[in-house]
Amino acid sequence: MENKIVSSGTSLYAQDHEARSAVRDRPVVFYVQPLIARYRVEVIESLNRLFCVKVFACSEGMEANGFSRERPDCEEFVETRIAGLSSRRIRMQSRVLTRIVLERPDAVLIFADVRYLSLWLALIAGRAIRVPVLIHGQGLYRHTHAGFVRTLCYRIAVALAQRYVCYTEASRRSLVRIGCPARKLVVANNSLQVSSTVEPSAKTGTENGVLFIGRLRENSQIEGLIEVIAQLHREGCDIALHVVGGGEHAASLQRRYRDRSDVIWYGALYDDDTIAAISRRCRVGCYPGSAGLSVVHMFALSLPPVVHNRLRQHMGPEPGYVEDGHTGFLFRRDGGVAALAATLRRAWALPPDTMREMATAAHAAYCRLNTPTLGHQLAEIVEASLRA
User: What class, spelled out in words, does domain 200-369 have in CATH?
Assistant: First the structure.
């Protein structure tokens, strides 16, 4: 805002005061997450444009689990605790219910983990005091047969909620399949924004790198990928693995493979410029285990992702965005290391022009998933619910 006097004689100070008052007059929305990962900051920024946002999340132990500690710009950041109940199968997030009941926000947007007692209490309280609660989650894409208890939980949760915002179309179909009313289900394709992308024109199709990006956790199965890289090396293939990520297994993996010259470890990086620079040395991305949003990050870097073909066994439904031979490569999960090796051989055998075409398709998928961004979609869904 320019430093000037407006025609009525009101000073800049008065304008700022009015702006702050206008912010407070906007609808109040509680945004509840177990933690605020970096990719959720855009969601909060987008919600902030329409609402007065109060964020509820737990920051304890984030760095040890491979996440950066974020403090997004919002009206209030409410630090919560997450406690395990009943042998840790049931969880409770503190301060959520109390604040909903005492403050009666205009809406609540909360993550849809039915193991959280705090989710159920928020849904019940919202219904009792007429505060619309929207839940945002993966649905039941992992379950061909959900079972009676799980089906009942999801049907009740959707019934109590104003809307269930599904991560992907596969998530929506999974809830329709168990009898949830379609009118309550809306899709906002789960995605992330990357501040430094790589244009397809920057790719040659002859890069010798494979990029792993994501948390080094249980079920990342990076050990199998490292074994494949060694095998292809022995076959005379010019290939190297670049590993970007932290997490509970990072230190032990680096110690175990410290003598491998074809594996380059960068640790947990959060600077998109640095990650983009590393990715320019790579032909494809690969997350051999249970993947999630890392495939979208690979798309942003014009790297066709290599992931396994069993969507239900991924961490999230986002690997469903990968189209084999077009935006990326799928390998048979039940084929193990041999199937992954065959897929990387296939990628290395393709002509550079074909690889550049796939890089273009991958980057186009990223652009499509972010037009509009996830945050804009969620803000519009909340706004529509307030008008309903």
Answer: alpha beta
